[in-house]
Amino acid sequence: MAISLKVNGQTRTVEADPAKPLLWALREDLDMVGTKFGCGAGLCGACTVHIDGSPARACQTPIGEAQGMAITTIEAVAQSDAGKRISDAWVKLDVPQCGYCQAGQIMSASALLATTPDPSDEDIDAAMMGNLCRCSTYVRIRAAIKDAAR
Ligand code: FES
User: Where is each 2Fe-2S ferredoxin-type domain found (predicted)?
Assistant: First the structure.
């Protein structure tokens, strides 16, 4: 079935089952591999994208339900001014360790900063609690979000 998706401002069509998770449509059909597979069960946040501006789990979002919604991935956020500011803070504060979860972390951080330009520790903890990091870079992530907010 042809499913039309609005990804990073462009209309893209994929031939797939409407139940296919958005994560795999992005990675397999659209060759956008910045969005990562972690758990596939909605638990880790590695697959975070924005849907209509809010963070969402791409592994738990059937493409049939994402039709007509504005999907934003790390590929677009990385090119945006806000994304560059966040990436600069990530580099400056040496946030990544293995790096695997960081695209998802940056997607949640950018959604937070878009709505809360000067977040408190509590705001950051609430926004980031769904993004797990096995290297435990949480303290540096919080510092980098504050740095990017300046
Ligand atoms: Fe989607 Fe873990 S891969 S939440």
Answer: 1-77
Parent domain of 85: 79-149
**Separation of CA 44 and ligand 1 centre (Å):** 5
- pLDDT tens digits for range 94-124: 999 999 999 999 999 999 999 999 999 999 9
**Are residues 84 and 71 part of one domain?**
no
Cβ–ligand 1 contact at 43 (below 6 Å): yes
Give the ipTM of the model, two decimals please: 0.97
CA distance 31 to 22: 12
* Count of H-run helices and E-run strands, the chain: 7, 5
Quick one: 7 and 70 in the same domain?
A: yes
